[in-house]
Amino acid sequence: MAAPESGDGNNGAARMVTLISSDNTRFEVEAAAASLSQTLQLTILDGGGGGGDGIPLPNVDSATLSKVLEYCIKHAPAAANGGAPNATAVDRAELERFDNEFVNIDQSVLYSLIMAAHNLEIEGLQSLVAKKVADMIKGKSPMEIRRTLGFPDPTPEEQAEMNAHMLEYGWAYE
Amino acid sequence: MYRQEAAVRRSNHVRDNKLLVDRDIYVQKRSMETLQVLCDDIVVEILVRLPSKSVLRCRAVCKNWLRITTDPSFLTLHADASAARDDRTPGLDDSERHSCVSQRPGLYIVCNPATRQWTNMPVLAPQPCFTAFPCGFYRHGPSGQYRLLCRGIVLVGEEEEESDIANYYGMGAAANYYYILTAGGGRPRQLLRQRAPADRPLLRIGYQVPVSHRGVLIWCSLHPMAPRMGKMLTFHTVSEAFRLMATPSHGQEVAILFELDRELCVATIPPCVSRLDIWVLHDYAAETWT
Protein backbone atom coordinates (compact mmCIF):
# COMPACT_ATOMS: atom_id res chain seq x y z
CA MET A 1 0.00 0.00 0.00
CA ALA A 2 1.45 3.36 -1.02
CA ALA A 3 1.86 6.10 1.55
CA PRO A 4 -0.54 9.04 1.16
CA GLU A 5 1.07 11.63 -1.07
CA SER A 6 1.78 14.78 0.81
CA GLY A 7 1.78 17.15 -2.15
CA ASP A 8 5.18 16.51 -3.73
CA GLY A 9 4.23 14.38 -6.70
CA ASN A 10 6.57 12.26 -8.77
CA ASN A 11 7.16 15.04 -11.29
CA GLY A 12 7.93 17.71 -8.73
CA ALA A 13 4.51 19.31 -9.06
CA ALA A 14 1.65 18.45 -6.67
CA ARG A 15 -0.51 15.62 -7.91
CA MET A 16 -3.93 16.81 -9.02
CA VAL A 17 -7.22 14.93 -9.19
CA THR A 18 -10.49 15.83 -10.87
CA LEU A 19 -13.84 15.60 -9.08
CA ILE A 20 -17.12 15.78 -10.98
CA SER A 21 -20.19 17.10 -9.19
CA SER A 22 -23.75 15.84 -9.70
CA ASP A 23 -24.41 18.65 -12.20
CA ASN A 24 -21.30 17.70 -14.20
CA THR A 25 -19.01 20.53 -13.10
CA ARG A 26 -15.36 19.49 -12.98
CA PHE A 27 -13.15 20.52 -10.06
CA GLU A 28 -9.40 20.06 -10.16
CA VAL A 29 -7.77 19.93 -6.73
CA GLU A 30 -4.57 18.70 -5.14
CA ALA A 31 -4.76 15.05 -4.18
CA ALA A 32 -3.66 15.96 -0.65
CA ALA A 33 -6.73 18.18 -0.19
CA ALA A 34 -9.18 15.67 -1.67
CA SER A 35 -7.68 12.94 0.53
CA LEU A 36 -9.18 14.57 3.62
CA SER A 37 -12.22 12.63 2.48
CA GLN A 38 -11.89 9.02 3.62
CA THR A 39 -14.13 7.96 0.74
CA LEU A 40 -11.97 9.67 -1.89
CA GLN A 41 -8.68 8.72 -0.28
CA LEU A 42 -9.16 5.06 -1.19
CA THR A 43 -9.86 5.88 -4.82
CA ILE A 44 -6.93 8.30 -5.00
CA LEU A 45 -4.52 5.81 -3.43
CA ASP A 46 -5.56 3.39 -6.16
CA GLY A 47 -4.46 5.99 -8.70
CA GLY A 48 -7.96 7.11 -9.67
CA GLY A 49 -9.09 10.64 -10.47
CA GLY A 50 -6.07 11.61 -12.55
CA GLY A 51 -5.90 12.64 -16.18
CA GLY A 52 -9.19 12.94 -18.04
CA ASP A 53 -11.07 10.42 -15.89
CA GLY A 54 -12.19 12.31 -12.85
CA ILE A 55 -14.14 10.91 -9.89
CA PRO A 56 -17.90 11.32 -10.22
CA LEU A 57 -19.74 12.43 -7.07
CA PRO A 58 -23.40 11.94 -7.99
CA ASN A 59 -24.70 13.05 -4.62
CA VAL A 60 -22.87 16.39 -4.25
CA ASP A 61 -23.87 19.42 -6.31
CA SER A 62 -21.32 21.96 -7.53
CA ALA A 63 -22.22 24.69 -5.02
CA THR A 64 -21.75 22.29 -2.11
CA LEU A 65 -18.64 20.69 -3.58
CA SER A 66 -16.90 24.04 -4.02
CA LYS A 67 -17.68 24.84 -0.37
CA VAL A 68 -16.38 21.44 0.73
CA LEU A 69 -13.18 21.90 -1.29
CA GLU A 70 -12.68 25.35 0.20
CA TYR A 71 -12.56 23.62 3.58
CA CYS A 72 -10.28 20.82 2.37
CA ILE A 73 -7.74 23.15 0.76
CA LYS A 74 -7.57 25.26 3.92
CA HIS A 75 -7.15 22.24 6.18
CA ALA A 76 -4.90 20.10 3.98
CA PRO A 77 -1.52 21.55 5.10
CA ALA A 78 -2.35 21.09 8.79
CA ALA A 79 -3.58 17.54 8.14
CA ALA A 80 -0.37 16.72 6.23
CA ASN A 81 1.63 17.77 9.30
CA GLY A 82 -0.36 15.35 11.36
CA GLY A 83 -2.42 18.11 12.95
CA ALA A 84 -1.21 20.10 15.91
CA PRO A 85 2.46 19.16 16.49
CA ASN A 86 4.05 21.46 13.91
CA ALA A 87 1.32 24.04 13.78
CA THR A 88 2.06 27.34 15.44
CA ALA A 89 -0.47 29.06 17.68
CA VAL A 90 -0.99 31.62 14.91
CA ASP A 91 -1.84 28.89 12.39
CA ARG A 92 -4.28 27.28 14.78
CA ALA A 93 -5.98 30.58 15.56
CA GLU A 94 -6.24 31.26 11.83
CA LEU A 95 -7.86 27.86 11.21
CA GLU A 96 -10.28 28.45 14.06
CA ARG A 97 -11.22 31.85 12.67
CA PHE A 98 -11.70 30.26 9.25
CA ASP A 99 -13.90 27.50 10.72
CA ASN A 100 -16.13 29.96 12.56
CA GLU A 101 -16.54 32.02 9.44
CA PHE A 102 -17.04 28.92 7.33
CA VAL A 103 -20.16 27.68 9.12
CA ASN A 104 -21.67 31.15 9.39
CA ILE A 105 -23.90 30.31 6.44
CA ASP A 106 -27.47 29.87 5.34
CA GLN A 107 -29.20 26.82 6.80
CA SER A 108 -29.82 25.21 3.43
CA VAL A 109 -26.10 25.37 2.66
CA LEU A 110 -25.30 24.02 6.12
CA TYR A 111 -27.69 21.16 5.53
CA SER A 112 -26.07 20.26 2.20
CA LEU A 113 -22.68 20.42 3.89
CA ILE A 114 -23.75 17.95 6.59
CA MET A 115 -24.83 15.47 3.95
CA ALA A 116 -21.71 15.97 1.84
CA ALA A 117 -19.33 15.72 4.81
CA HIS A 118 -21.07 12.54 5.87
CA ASN A 119 -21.05 10.94 2.42
CA LEU A 120 -17.45 11.92 1.74
CA GLU A 121 -16.42 11.07 5.31
CA ILE A 122 -14.48 14.23 6.04
CA GLU A 123 -14.04 13.93 9.76
CA GLY A 124 -13.09 17.50 10.60
CA LEU A 125 -15.92 18.95 8.55
CA GLN A 126 -18.40 16.48 10.02
CA SER A 127 -17.65 17.57 13.55
CA LEU A 128 -17.53 21.23 12.56
CA VAL A 129 -21.05 21.23 11.10
CA ALA A 130 -22.41 18.91 13.81
CA LYS A 131 -21.10 21.33 16.43
CA LYS A 132 -22.73 24.22 14.59
CA VAL A 133 -26.15 22.50 14.59
CA ALA A 134 -25.70 21.46 18.23
CA ASP A 135 -25.08 25.11 19.10
CA MET A 136 -28.32 26.00 17.32
CA ILE A 137 -30.22 23.46 19.45
CA LYS A 138 -28.59 24.16 22.80
CA GLY A 139 -30.83 25.84 25.37
CA LYS A 140 -33.94 25.75 23.20
CA SER A 141 -37.30 24.17 24.00
CA PRO A 142 -38.51 21.25 21.84
CA MET A 143 -40.89 23.59 19.99
CA GLU A 144 -38.12 26.12 19.34
CA ILE A 145 -35.86 23.32 18.11
CA ARG A 146 -38.51 22.18 15.63
CA ARG A 147 -38.93 25.75 14.37
CA THR A 148 -35.20 26.38 14.17
CA LEU A 149 -34.59 23.25 12.17
CA GLY A 150 -37.67 23.76 10.00
CA PHE A 151 -39.60 20.69 11.09
CA PRO A 152 -43.28 20.72 10.15
CA ASP A 153 -45.64 21.96 12.86
CA PRO A 154 -46.39 19.20 15.37
CA THR A 155 -49.58 17.21 15.13
CA PRO A 156 -51.95 17.61 18.11
CA GLU A 157 -50.72 14.24 19.33
CA GLU A 158 -47.08 15.31 19.17
CA GLN A 159 -47.97 18.58 20.87
CA ALA A 160 -49.61 16.67 23.71
CA GLU A 161 -46.54 14.45 24.11
CA MET A 162 -44.33 17.52 24.20
CA ASN A 163 -46.42 19.12 26.94
CA ALA A 164 -46.40 15.92 28.96
CA HIS A 165 -42.62 15.71 28.67
CA MET A 166 -42.23 19.30 29.85
CA LEU A 167 -44.44 18.59 32.84
CA GLU A 168 -42.55 15.42 33.76
CA TYR A 169 -39.08 16.87 33.31
CA GLY A 170 -39.74 20.43 34.41
CA TRP A 171 -36.27 20.66 35.96
CA ALA A 172 -34.66 20.26 32.54
CA TYR A 173 -36.38 23.41 31.37
CA GLU A 174 -35.20 25.65 34.20
CA MET B 1 -16.86 0.92 -4.82
CA TYR B 2 -19.68 -0.29 -2.64
CA ARG B 3 -19.14 2.74 -0.46
CA GLN B 4 -20.20 4.98 -3.28
CA GLU B 5 -23.20 2.83 -4.03
CA ALA B 6 -24.24 3.03 -0.43
CA ALA B 7 -23.80 6.78 -0.54
CA VAL B 8 -25.93 7.02 -3.68
CA ARG B 9 -28.62 4.91 -2.13
CA ARG B 10 -28.55 7.06 0.96
CA SER B 11 -28.86 10.23 -1.05
CA ASN B 12 -31.73 8.81 -3.10
CA HIS B 13 -33.45 7.90 0.10
CA VAL B 14 -33.01 11.41 1.41
CA ARG B 15 -34.11 12.91 -1.89
CA ASP B 16 -37.32 10.88 -1.86
CA ASN B 17 -38.07 12.04 1.61
CA LYS B 18 -37.26 15.57 0.64
CA LEU B 19 -39.89 15.46 -2.08
CA LEU B 20 -42.42 14.22 0.42
CA VAL B 21 -41.59 16.95 2.85
CA ASP B 22 -41.55 19.62 0.16
CA ARG B 23 -45.12 18.75 -0.67
CA ASP B 24 -46.04 19.26 2.94
CA ILE B 25 -48.00 22.48 3.23
CA TYR B 26 -46.57 23.16 6.66
CA VAL B 27 -43.11 23.67 5.32
CA GLN B 28 -42.53 27.30 4.66
CA LYS B 29 -38.82 27.38 4.05
CA ARG B 30 -36.74 25.00 2.03
CA SER B 31 -33.98 25.06 4.60
CA MET B 32 -33.33 22.25 7.06
CA GLU B 33 -36.66 20.50 6.70
CA THR B 34 -34.91 17.25 5.91
CA LEU B 35 -32.87 17.31 9.09
CA GLN B 36 -35.87 15.42 10.39
CA VAL B 37 -35.18 12.56 8.00
CA LEU B 38 -31.39 12.62 8.20
CA CYS B 39 -29.93 9.24 8.87
CA ASP B 40 -29.40 8.32 12.50
CA ASP B 41 -25.62 8.60 12.30
CA ILE B 42 -25.79 12.31 11.59
CA VAL B 43 -28.40 12.99 14.26
CA VAL B 44 -26.28 11.09 16.80
CA GLU B 45 -23.23 13.08 15.79
CA ILE B 46 -25.11 16.31 16.50
CA LEU B 47 -26.96 15.35 19.68
CA VAL B 48 -23.95 13.73 21.32
CA ARG B 49 -22.39 17.20 21.58
CA LEU B 50 -25.22 18.57 23.70
CA PRO B 51 -25.28 18.86 27.49
CA SER B 52 -27.56 16.39 29.32
CA LYS B 53 -30.41 18.85 29.82
CA SER B 54 -30.57 19.64 26.11
CA VAL B 55 -30.52 15.94 25.25
CA LEU B 56 -33.47 15.44 27.54
CA ARG B 57 -35.37 18.24 25.82
CA CYS B 58 -34.53 16.72 22.45
CA ARG B 59 -36.47 13.64 23.45
CA ALA B 60 -39.64 15.68 23.14
CA VAL B 61 -38.80 16.98 19.66
CA CYS B 62 -39.99 13.94 17.72
CA LYS B 63 -40.35 10.18 18.00
CA ASN B 64 -37.22 9.53 15.97
CA TRP B 65 -35.09 11.63 18.28
CA LEU B 66 -36.67 9.99 21.31
CA ARG B 67 -35.69 6.59 19.94
CA ILE B 68 -32.14 7.71 19.19
CA THR B 69 -31.49 9.44 22.49
CA THR B 70 -32.76 6.57 24.63
CA ASP B 71 -30.62 3.97 22.88
CA PRO B 72 -27.90 2.52 25.14
CA SER B 73 -25.24 3.04 22.49
CA PHE B 74 -26.12 6.74 22.31
CA LEU B 75 -25.99 7.09 26.09
CA THR B 76 -22.54 5.51 26.19
CA LEU B 77 -21.29 7.79 23.42
CA HIS B 78 -22.80 10.79 25.14
CA ALA B 79 -21.25 9.91 28.50
CA ASP B 80 -17.84 9.56 26.85
CA ALA B 81 -18.18 12.80 24.94
CA SER B 82 -19.28 14.67 28.07
CA ALA B 83 -16.41 13.21 30.05
CA ALA B 84 -13.96 14.25 27.33
CA ARG B 85 -15.40 17.77 27.24
CA ASP B 86 -15.31 18.24 30.97
CA ASP B 87 -11.94 16.55 31.29
CA ARG B 88 -12.98 14.65 34.35
CA THR B 89 -11.39 11.55 35.77
CA PRO B 90 -13.41 8.69 34.38
CA GLY B 91 -14.49 6.06 36.84
CA LEU B 92 -14.65 8.47 39.70
CA ASP B 93 -17.12 11.22 38.96
CA ASP B 94 -19.11 9.07 36.62
CA SER B 95 -19.77 6.38 39.11
CA GLU B 96 -20.68 9.13 41.51
CA ARG B 97 -23.15 10.51 39.05
CA HIS B 98 -24.69 7.08 38.62
CA SER B 99 -25.74 4.90 41.46
CA CYS B 100 -26.34 1.23 41.75
CA VAL B 101 -29.08 -0.14 43.94
CA SER B 102 -30.18 -3.62 44.74
CA GLN B 103 -33.80 -4.34 44.03
CA ARG B 104 -33.80 -7.82 45.49
CA PRO B 105 -30.95 -10.27 46.04
CA GLY B 106 -29.15 -10.92 42.78
CA LEU B 107 -30.93 -8.21 40.81
CA TYR B 108 -29.30 -4.80 40.61
CA ILE B 109 -30.37 -1.70 38.77
CA VAL B 110 -28.27 1.28 37.73
CA CYS B 111 -29.79 4.74 37.76
CA ASN B 112 -28.63 8.02 36.40
CA PRO B 113 -29.99 10.62 38.81
CA ALA B 114 -29.39 13.41 36.31
CA THR B 115 -31.75 12.01 33.69
CA ARG B 116 -33.71 9.80 36.09
CA GLN B 117 -33.22 6.80 33.91
CA TRP B 118 -32.50 3.31 35.00
CA THR B 119 -31.47 0.02 33.53
CA ASN B 120 -31.19 -3.53 34.80
CA MET B 121 -27.95 -5.31 35.44
CA PRO B 122 -27.93 -8.87 34.17
CA VAL B 123 -29.20 -11.29 36.77
CA LEU B 124 -26.42 -13.12 38.51
CA ALA B 125 -27.66 -16.67 38.88
CA PRO B 126 -25.37 -19.04 37.06
CA GLN B 127 -26.20 -21.88 39.42
CA PRO B 128 -29.22 -22.71 41.52
CA CYS B 129 -27.44 -22.50 44.86
CA PHE B 130 -25.81 -19.18 44.75
CA THR B 131 -25.47 -16.05 46.80
CA ALA B 132 -23.92 -12.88 45.45
CA PHE B 133 -22.60 -9.92 47.35
CA PRO B 134 -21.95 -6.63 45.58
CA CYS B 135 -18.40 -5.45 46.31
CA GLY B 136 -18.01 -2.29 44.28
CA PHE B 137 -19.62 -0.30 41.50
CA TYR B 138 -17.53 1.48 38.91
CA ARG B 139 -17.33 2.74 35.37
CA HIS B 140 -14.96 0.82 33.14
CA GLY B 141 -12.93 3.58 31.50
CA PRO B 142 -12.02 2.09 28.09
CA SER B 143 -15.51 0.79 27.30
CA GLY B 144 -17.53 3.41 29.17
CA GLN B 145 -19.69 0.68 30.66
CA TYR B 146 -21.01 0.67 34.17
CA ARG B 147 -19.99 -2.45 35.99
CA LEU B 148 -20.60 -4.07 39.30
CA LEU B 149 -18.02 -6.29 40.95
CA CYS B 150 -19.73 -9.13 42.80
CA ARG B 151 -18.56 -11.89 45.04
CA GLY B 152 -20.45 -15.03 44.31
CA ILE B 153 -20.55 -17.87 46.78
CA VAL B 154 -21.41 -21.25 45.42
CA LEU B 155 -22.67 -23.73 47.91
CA VAL B 156 -21.83 -27.20 46.77
CA GLY B 157 -24.23 -30.00 47.49
CA GLU B 158 -26.79 -27.97 49.41
CA GLU B 159 -29.66 -26.98 47.24
CA GLU B 160 -31.99 -24.03 47.65
CA GLU B 161 -30.80 -23.09 51.07
CA GLU B 162 -28.28 -20.53 50.03
CA SER B 163 -29.47 -17.81 52.36
CA ASP B 164 -29.63 -20.04 55.36
CA ILE B 165 -27.04 -18.93 57.88
CA ALA B 166 -26.45 -22.32 59.42
CA ASN B 167 -25.86 -23.74 56.02
CA TYR B 168 -23.57 -20.87 55.16
CA TYR B 169 -21.26 -21.51 58.02
CA GLY B 170 -21.60 -25.25 57.84
CA MET B 171 -20.43 -25.71 54.31
CA GLY B 172 -17.01 -27.11 53.82
CA ALA B 173 -16.52 -27.17 50.10
CA ALA B 174 -17.65 -23.72 49.12
CA ALA B 175 -16.09 -22.29 46.00
CA ASN B 176 -15.72 -18.56 45.72
CA TYR B 177 -15.69 -16.59 42.52
CA TYR B 178 -15.80 -12.99 41.53
CA TYR B 179 -18.18 -11.89 38.83
CA ILE B 180 -18.47 -8.71 36.86
CA LEU B 181 -21.90 -7.50 35.83
CA THR B 182 -22.13 -4.99 33.02
CA ALA B 183 -25.06 -2.61 32.65
CA GLY B 184 -26.83 -3.32 29.39
CA GLY B 185 -24.36 -6.12 28.75
CA GLY B 186 -24.74 -9.83 28.35
CA ARG B 187 -24.14 -12.61 30.81
CA PRO B 188 -22.17 -12.01 33.99
CA ARG B 189 -18.47 -12.58 33.46
CA GLN B 190 -16.47 -14.66 35.87
CA LEU B 191 -13.12 -13.27 36.92
CA LEU B 192 -10.34 -15.80 36.96
CA ARG B 193 -9.56 -16.87 40.46
CA GLN B 194 -7.44 -14.16 42.00
CA ARG B 195 -4.55 -14.67 44.32
CA ALA B 196 -5.71 -11.92 46.64
CA PRO B 197 -9.35 -12.63 47.35
CA ALA B 198 -11.24 -10.78 49.99
CA ASP B 199 -12.62 -12.19 53.17
CA ARG B 200 -15.99 -13.79 53.03
CA PRO B 201 -18.57 -11.11 53.52
CA LEU B 202 -20.56 -11.05 56.67
CA LEU B 203 -23.96 -12.36 55.84
CA ARG B 204 -26.71 -9.74 56.00
CA ILE B 205 -24.19 -6.92 56.29
CA GLY B 206 -22.26 -7.69 53.11
CA TYR B 207 -19.22 -5.73 52.13
CA GLN B 208 -18.22 -2.29 53.21
CA VAL B 209 -18.50 0.30 50.46
CA PRO B 210 -15.10 0.85 48.85
CA VAL B 211 -13.51 4.22 48.33
CA SER B 212 -13.12 5.04 44.66
CA HIS B 213 -9.90 6.85 43.94
CA ARG B 214 -8.63 7.59 40.42
CA GLY B 215 -10.13 4.49 38.90
CA VAL B 216 -9.16 2.22 41.78
CA LEU B 217 -11.54 0.79 44.32
CA ILE B 218 -10.01 0.44 47.78
CA TRP B 219 -11.16 -1.43 50.85
CA CYS B 220 -9.15 -1.13 54.03
CA SER B 221 -9.91 -4.40 55.77
CA LEU B 222 -11.38 -7.02 53.47
CA HIS B 223 -8.35 -9.19 52.93
CA PRO B 224 -7.91 -11.78 55.66
CA MET B 225 -4.19 -11.09 55.98
CA ALA B 226 -4.28 -7.42 55.11
CA PRO B 227 -4.65 -5.78 58.53
CA ARG B 228 -1.81 -7.80 60.00
CA MET B 229 0.45 -7.13 57.04
CA GLY B 230 -0.43 -3.46 56.97
CA LYS B 231 -1.96 -3.72 53.54
CA MET B 232 -5.16 -2.67 51.87
CA LEU B 233 -7.01 -4.47 49.11
CA THR B 234 -7.36 -2.57 45.85
CA PHE B 235 -9.16 -3.33 42.61
CA HIS B 236 -8.07 -1.59 39.45
CA THR B 237 -11.17 -0.75 37.39
CA VAL B 238 -9.40 -0.68 34.02
CA SER B 239 -7.35 -3.86 34.21
CA GLU B 240 -9.91 -5.40 36.58
CA ALA B 241 -7.31 -6.97 38.81
CA PHE B 242 -6.82 -7.07 42.56
CA ARG B 243 -3.69 -5.89 44.33
CA LEU B 244 -2.54 -5.28 47.86
CA MET B 245 -1.32 -1.82 48.74
CA ALA B 246 0.76 -0.67 51.69
CA THR B 247 -0.91 1.39 54.37
CA PRO B 248 0.91 4.17 56.21
CA SER B 249 0.46 2.73 59.66
CA HIS B 250 2.61 -0.08 60.96
CA GLY B 251 0.68 -2.65 62.88
CA GLN B 252 -2.06 -0.19 63.63
CA GLU B 253 -5.59 -0.75 62.51
CA VAL B 254 -6.68 1.55 59.73
CA ALA B 255 -9.69 3.31 61.13
CA ILE B 256 -11.21 5.24 58.27
CA LEU B 257 -10.52 5.45 54.58
CA PHE B 258 -11.81 8.49 52.72
CA GLU B 259 -11.17 10.90 49.91
CA LEU B 260 -10.51 14.58 50.54
CA ASP B 261 -9.72 17.13 47.87
CA ARG B 262 -9.19 14.34 45.35
CA GLU B 263 -6.49 12.79 47.53
CA LEU B 264 -6.83 9.43 49.19
CA CYS B 265 -6.61 9.76 52.96
CA VAL B 266 -6.40 7.34 55.81
CA ALA B 267 -7.12 8.14 59.42
CA THR B 268 -5.45 5.98 62.02
CA ILE B 269 -5.67 5.94 65.77
CA PRO B 270 -2.28 5.36 67.40
CA PRO B 271 -1.98 3.60 70.78
CA CYS B 272 -2.25 6.88 72.69
CA VAL B 273 -5.85 7.55 71.86
CA SER B 274 -5.73 11.28 72.30
CA ARG B 275 -4.43 11.66 68.77
CA LEU B 276 -5.79 11.01 65.29
CA ASP B 277 -3.31 10.65 62.47
CA ILE B 278 -4.38 11.48 58.95
CA TRP B 279 -2.25 10.17 56.12
CA VAL B 280 -2.45 11.31 52.53
CA LEU B 281 -1.46 9.06 49.65
CA HIS B 282 1.45 10.81 47.99
CA ASP B 283 2.20 8.56 45.07
CA TYR B 284 -0.07 5.69 44.11
CA ALA B 285 2.59 3.77 42.17
CA ALA B 286 5.24 4.08 44.85
CA GLU B 287 2.71 3.64 47.66
CA THR B 288 4.26 6.42 49.66
CA TRP B 289 2.29 8.31 52.26
CA THR B 290 2.89 11.63 53.94
UniProtKB/TrEMBL annotation, chain A:
Q: Which SMART domains match?
A: Skp1
Organism whose genome encodes this protein: Eleusine coracana subsp. coracana
Highest taxon above the source species: Eukaryota
The keyword Cell inner membrane is assigned to this record: no
Which biological process annotations from GO are given for this protein?
jasmonic acid mediated signaling pathway; protein ubiquitination; ubiquitin-dependent protein catabolic process
Name the gene for this chain: ga14711
Which part of the chain is the SKP1 component POZ domain? 16-75
Q: In which pathway is this protein known to take part?
A: Protein modification; protein ubiquitination
Q: Which keywords does the record carry?
A: Ubl conjugation pathway
Kindly give the Pfam families that the UniProt entry links to this protein. Skp1, Skp1_POZ
Outline what the protein does.
Answer: Involved in ubiquitination and subsequent proteasomal degradation of target proteins. Together with CUL1, RBX1 and a F-box protein, it forms a SCF E3 ubiquitin ligase complex. The functional specificity of this complex depends on the type of F-box protein. In the SCF complex, it serves as an adapter that links the F-box protein to CUL1.
- What is the similarity comment for this entry? Belongs to the SKP1 family.
Protein's name in the database: SKP1-like protein
- The SKP1 component dimerisation domain sits at 124-163
Q: Assembly and partners?
A: Part of a SCF (SKP1-cullin-F-box) protein ligase complex.
TrEMBL record, chain B:
> What Pfam families does this protein's entry cite?
F-box
Q: Which residues cross the membrane?
A: none
Tell me the InterPro entries matching this sequence. Answer: F-box-like_dom_sf, F-box_dom, SCF_F-box_component
Q: Which intervals hold domain F-box?
A: 38-78
Query: What protein name applies here?
Result: F-box domain-containing protein
Gene (name only): gb02273
